[in-house]
Structure formats: C-alpha cells, structure tokens
Design a protein that fits this description.
Number of strands: 47
Mean pLDDT: 81
Helix content: under 10%
Number of domains: 2
CATH superfamily of the largest domain: TonB-dependent receptor, beta-barrel domain
CATH architecture of the largest domain: Beta Barrel
Structural class: mainly beta
Largest sheet: 22 strands, antiparallel, barrel
Length: 797
C-alpha cells in the first residue's frame, strides 16, 4: 500500500513540475476603434519556430501557455497589417491590448505564414480567413483539403465513417446529399472564417453523432453596415448541365442583426450503367444497359434576426424553406440468357421526387459573466413533406412470346421534429470549464404508399407492396462535461444519458431503452518549444437509422434490381478510441480502433419470390472491429506554393453475411492539393484524389483516381472569376456484388457526372454599403435530429 502511495505522490509531483514550467499569457486583439477582433491568428515564436498559437474568441481574447522567457508575438487577420512584437512570458502575465491597423493593401501584398490546417485538442481547424491557400475556393474545395474528410461526389465522410454532420454557424444543414453538396459549393472562402473537423464528439453533442461533425463558421463583423454577395456557377459536360445561382445579404444596425440567403440548383444529369450478372445456381447470365436522365429544380431561402436586449441578454429567430424536385426517365434493355433461350426486357421508368422542408428556430442567450459563461434556451421545429412516384412500363420478349406490363406507385411521407434544450456553459477560469444541459426531442414519421398494376383496362392494388408505416420517437437527454487545463495537461471528460421510447416500426413494436455515452479527451504537451503533443480520445455513440432507411418504399432501379428501406432496423452502438501525435503544431498522425455493434449497412440479396431479381436493403450487422490511421502533412515549399497531403487507412472488420464470420478488408483514401499564388492576383489550384477498393458487406467498389485543376482571377475588390476542369482522368465507377455462397456475381460500370470530365465556371460579385458589421446566426437545438432526414447512412449501389 505504501508503494502505491509513493507512486501516486511521484506522479502528482511530476504533473505539478510539468505545469510549473508553463506560464499562461493572455491578451486581447482590437482594431483602431477599440472593437474586438474575433478569429485573429496569434502565435508565439522562438528562433522562428512556433511554440504556441490560437485564434482569438468573440471578445478578441487569447491565452497562450509557454515556458518563461522571451518570444516573438505575431498577430494576423485578413485585411489588417500583421503585428510583430517582442514580449516576455512570465507567471500568469497580462499582455494587454494589441491594436491591428487596416491594411492599405490586400492579403496578397504581404507575406502571410499562417497555416491552412492546424490541430487542436479534439479537432482539426482549417484557418480559412488567414490562409492564402484558401483564396477563391468554395466550400467543397476547402473540405477536400480538410484532414480525414472524404467527398466521393455523393456523400461526406470523416475517417471512412459516412453520415458525417455539417453545421453552418452552429446550425446543421438539413438537406439530402445532392442538395448539401450544391449548397456547400455556393459558399466562398471569402465569407468563411474557419472549418472545424471533429472526428470524435463529446457529451455536449447528441449521442447520434457517431460519424463526426464538420463545423463551418462564417465571418463575423461588429460595426454598422450592410454587405453581401451574388454568385453564379455552372458545370458543363456530356453528363451534367447545371446552373447554380446564390446570393446573401447581411445587415447590422445597433442592437439588431439581420441576414438572409437564397440559393438554387437547376439543370439535369445523365447516368449510363452497364451490367453483367452471372447466376451460378441456375447457370443464367444477365447483360443490361440503362440510360437515366434526371432533371432537378432545387432551391432554398432562409432569413434570421438577432436582437441584443442588453449586453447580457439576446433573442434570436430564424426561418428557412427549401424545395427539392427531380424527375426524368430511365430506359433499360436487359437480356437474361440460359442454355435454351434469351429473354429480352425493355423498360421505361418515369419517376418524380418532390419535397418541401420548413424550419423555425428560436433561442434566448444569457451571458452570465465576463469569462464567457452562458445559459441558452433553444427551441426548434422542422417539417418535411415529400411525395414520389413512378410510372413504369415493360415489354418482355421470349422467342415468339411478347408480354407488355404497366405498373405504378405513389408514396407520400411527412416528418415532424420538435426539440427543446437548455444548455449551461460555466467558465470558472481560463483553466476550468463546465458544460451541462438537458434536451427533449420528438420525432414523428408518417408514410403511405400505393402500388398498382394494370390488368384488363383497370388499375388493381398490389396489397403485397402497398403499406402504411407510422413511426414515433421520444428522446430525453441529460449531459455534463468538465474541462481542465493543468500546465502541459489538458483534460476533458463528459457523460451523456439518453432515454428513448419508440412506437411503430414493423408490426407496431415498442422500444424503451436507456443508454449512457461517456467520452474523455486527454492531451499532453511533449515539447512546448517544438510544438509536439500527444492526444488520447474515447467516446461511445449511437447510430440511429435515418428516416429514409426506415421507409419501406420500393424503388425499381432496373429490370432485375430494386431497393427498399427496412422499418425493423435497430440503432447501432459504437466505441471509438484513438491516439494522435502532433509534431511542430502542424503535422499529425492518428491511430485508432472502432467497435460497432449492429452496424447499419446496405446489402444485396436474391429476392425469395424470384431468384433472378436482386433486392438492395438496409440491415443490422453483428459487431465488427475496425482499425484506422490518418495522416495530415501541410507543406509550404515556397512562399507562393502551399501543399497539403491527407491520407486515411482503415483495416475494416465486416461480415459478408449478416450473422457470418468477421473478415477484414483494407480501405485507403489519399489526396494531395496544391495552391500557387501568382502575380496579378491569379491563383492556380490542382489536386489528385485516390480511393482504394471499398468492401461493404456483399458489395464492393473498385479503386478510382481523380485529377482536377483550376485557375482563379480577382478583378478589383468586388469580382472573382474561376474556371476549373474536374474528372480529368475521365473514369467510370466500377461496382461489384455477390450473393450468399456466390449464388450470383454482379459487375457494373457506371458513367456519371462526378467521375467524368467536366468544366466549371463561376463569377462572384461582392458588395458593401457602410462600415463592416458583425454577422451572427441563430443556434439550433434540433440540428443533430434533423440529420436523420438526409438520405441514407452508407453507400448506395
């Protein structure tokens, strides 16, 4: 017992000794009028090497920890002259205010050494506002450079975990994948302050954040005035013709902020697929070609306002509406052959998919003290109405026999999400912070579908496929998170409890369950002078099935393939633990392990009624274990050249059969991006992306490469022109699938817009009236819950 006491005393003494070698130095960054500057980059340098660094908070304050001694302090902010000053760090010293003066030249006129990407304790930060490499890029371009983030043209994932959530100013974007990517492309780097990538979330997030979170913060200004922008982008190729207008306006006057934005995406896309399926059990072979053309009319508008009652109290409200509409025909020709005969099927599938989304958000924020403590009351309501339908016709020819058939379906869905939450953040000192809160969520889903077929000049109901499915979910949550900074050590620990009650699903089943979701984050600074640190993270999360996965609607993809949702899906639970090594405050290497129980994935099986027909469906798999590693290496070979390299490797555990043996496969993602800043305000970007083979249950996606290049030109302070070429390698996507015991093997070659060569052109006009002002946005309480309105949580086939 005495030995244990001695060891504990020695560890405490070691920690205290480490803490004693670091001293906190705090200060404030303001402009010439004495107004605080938020998100200015502040770094401490010794002999040209960065020792510590951070961005200022909403009050312009910063705190850096370093060993006692003399340092060079450097402060930078877009549109201001860089400030360099010699300072001395001592025990808990106040450095006072630092004044940044407006720069008569723009960012290109000065040498800026700020990095595009930096690592913080629990997240990566893409410092858009202070990085020349970000100039002229859109939201997708920036995310493609973010560590661990992968965009395959259809969805966004972090460290190979698809279904990652995206926030704009603390408000989640509730759109399907296509709309989300379209909206992110409408965002310009000039209006983005920073992007944060959080691979493992804490207890203050909903437990349903298993795939990580991406937070995009738009720039904020404080003085009265009006500004905004109008932009237009278009993509043109053999497979895509889209036109994407967008505009935003922001106004600050006295105690009132008002902001509004509108965006749209109009055009059409084409997809050509070629399929070969071998049915080993019956000896049949299938060859098919399909040609799909989809028109789209997507647009949205949102408006919000915040009113500062007094310095401590503020109210906010926001309304948003967006509409999605797509329609178009798919024509197919299929030959199903055996040794005796060939059956040819020619079909046409005319489909439409329309939806309207309405969201209302309200918040009240009370500032409790001068340390940034707040009490927030948040309430949200989201309503989504959707309807879809198909008019299908087929002609089946087998020798002299010809059979024509007509069938159709119509489905309507209604989703309601209501949320209320109370959140407390108490900062006891710059070293100690407590977050606690409560949240209630009500989710309701109503689905009705009618399937009919034509017989004897009459439409008859198909009772086997028509359905009515209602699903109701209640979630109550409590959480608490404590943070401490003790010299070289930084500790964060939290616990979230969620009680869930559901009713509906298949056969009217009820579920009641309570789960605890702990998380912990421990970081240790190995060498303050060199910027080396070590970070250990753990979190338990839940993956609830998206509403689209629960919807049993049947969608015919081709003559012999259809997909549907599964109302009987259960949630999946995930454990994630990882260790990150950060070198020189910029290079990072992460290794971790994920254990998922009941993972929700799509699988492809033979239809029990017709073995020639293949069914794509969502199922829960048994527990799987995966190991992963990520690396982020930012370089600056020259003042005019910035390079960023990202890589993700995952040794993924999976089950070919739902309850079969676990097998391991290897996933690899990598990208290298380059930005060249040239004279006359020209910028050249080029990037290469690699995706290795991906195995998901019974389906696999073969490796692919992508190369893109672009040039941007600024004209004065108001206009930006851009031209880029994507998909230079002009590749098809290749997908394979097999059934149990390989009773069938399918290979598909898909030609679609995001893998083929396309040209993209854009122009942006920025306007401003009066002085710059601060733009703020209303926080939303139901952000995590609305995520489940997005389509799917895995890869579609």
């Amino acid at each position: 017992m005495k030995k244990w006491i001695i060891w504990i005393v020695m560890i405490i003494c070691a920690i205290e000794a480490s803490a004693a070698r670091l001293c906190p130095a705090h200060g404030r960054v303001v402009n010439e009028q004495g107004k605080a500057i938020e998100y200015a980059t502040v770094v401490l340098l010794r002999e040209g090497r960065q020792v510590a660094g951070m961005a200022t908070d909403a009050d312009g304050q910063f705190q850096l920890e370093a060993a006692p001694g003399q340092y060079d302090l450097q402060i930078q902010y877009l549109g201001c002259e860089p400030l360099k000053q010699l300072i001395r760090v001592e025990e808990n010293n106040d450095l006072g205010d630092f004044v940044l003066r407006s720069s008569p030249t723009q960012i290109e006129g000065v040498v800026v050494s700020a990095r595009l990407v930096r690592r913080e304790a629990d997240r990566f930060v893409v410092d858009v506002a202070n990085a020349p490499a970000a100039i002229g890029k859109d939201g997708i371009d920036l995310l493609e450079q973010a560590p661990g983030v992968w965009i395959d043209g259809e969805k966004i994932s972090i460290n190979g975990k698809s279904g990652s959530k995206v926030y704009i100013n603390d408000r989640e974007l509730k759109m399907d994948n296509t709309q989300l990517l379209t909206y992110l492309r409408s965002l310009r780097a000039e209006e983005i302050q920073k992007i944060e990538v959080i691979p493992v979330t804490g207890a203050d997030y909903d437990a349903d954040s298993a795939s990580g979170v991406i937070r995009i913060t738009l720039k904020k200004r404080r003085e009265n005035g009006l500004n905004g922008s109008v932009a237009f982008n278009t993509s043109q190729s053999r497979y895509i013709h889209t036109y994407d207008p967008s505009a935003n306006i922001n106004l600050h006057s006295g105690k009132v902020d008002f902001y509004s934005s509108i965006w749209g995406s109009l055009g059409n896309q084409r997809l050509i697929s070629r399929e070969n399926t071998r049915y080993n059990a019956s000896g049949k072979n299938l060859q098919a070609i399909s040609n799909a053309r989809h028109n789209q009319r997507n647009y949205g508008i949102n408006a919000g306002s915040l009113f500062e009652i007094n310095p401590k109290n503020s109210l906010g409200a926001e309304l948003s509406v967006w509409h999605n509409g797509s329609w178009g025909p798919t024509s197919t020709s299929t030959d199903l052959m055996d040794q005796q005969a060939t059956v040819n099927t020619r079909s046409r599938f005319d489909n439409h998919d329309r939806g309207n989304n309405y969201t209302a958000t309200f918040n009240y924020i009370l500032k409790l003290d001068t340390l940034g403590s707040t009490l927030k009351l948040l309430a949200d309501y989201t309503r989504r109405d959707a309807d879809s339908g198909n008019d299908n016709s087929s002609r089946i020819t087998s020798g002299p026999s010809v059979v024509d058939s007509l069938y159709r379906d119509a489905a309507t869905s209604q989703y309601d999400i209501m949320t209320a939450s109370l959140a407390l953040e108490k900062n006891f000192s710059p070293r100690w912070t407590l977050k606690a809160g409560a949240k209630y969520t009500f989710n309701d889903m109503r689905n009705d579908a009618l399937y009919e077929y034509r017989k004897a000049d009459a439409w008859l109901r198909n009772n086997g496929q028509s359905y009515t499915v209602n699903y109701t979910e209640n979630i109550a949550a409590l959480y608490a998170t404590a943070s401490a900074r003790l010299g070289r050590w930084s500790l964060v620990a939290g616990l979230r409890g969620e009680y869930t009650h559901t009713h509906g699903k298949s056969g009217g089943l009820r579920q009641n369950y309570f789960s605890l979701f702990p998380n912990a984050n421990i970081s240790y600074t190995l060498a303050p002078e060199k910027g080396h640190s070590l970070i250990l993270q753990y979190a338990r999360t839940i993956q609830r099935p998206n509403f689209w996965c629960l919807n049993p609607q049947r969608s015919q993809l081709s003559d012999y393939t259809y997909q549907s949702g599964n109302p009987s899906l259960d949630p999946a639970f995930q454990h994630d633990v990882n260790l990150t090594l950060v070198l020189a405050n910029k290079y990072s290497l992460t290794g971790g392990v994920q254990i998922i129980d009941g993972e929700i994935l799509q699988t492809m099986l033979s239809d029990p009624q017709n073995p020639d027909m293949l069914h794509i469906n969502w199922v829960n798999f048994d527990a799987t274990t995966s190991y992963y590693a990520t690396v982020n290496l930012p370089f600056q070979p020259a003042k005019w050249w910035q390079m960023n390299l990202n890589g993700v490797y995952m040794r993924r555990g999976q089950r070919i059969e739902q309850h079969g043996e676990q097998h391991f496969c290897n996933w690899v993602f990598a990208n290298v991006s380059n930005t060249f800043s040239l004279p006359a305000r020209f910028y050249i970007d080029c990037a290469y992306f690699y995706q290795g083979r991906i195995d998901l249950g019974t389906v696999w996606v073969l490796p692919s490469h992508s190369l893109q290049a672009g040039i941007k030109k600024r004209l004065g302070e108001q206009f930006l022109l851009s031209l880029s070429v994507r998909g230079i390698l002009d590749q098809d996507q290749r997908i394979g699938a097999s059934g149990d015991n390989e009773d069938f093997v399918r290979m598909m070659h898909i030609s679609q817009a995001w893998g083929k060569i396309q040209f993209r052109f854009g122009v942006t006009w920025n306007f401003q009236s009066g002085k710059a002002f601060r733009k703020r946005a209303v926080e939303a309480a139901s952000a995590e819950d609305r995520e489940r309105l997005s389509k799917g949580s895995g890869t579609g086939f």
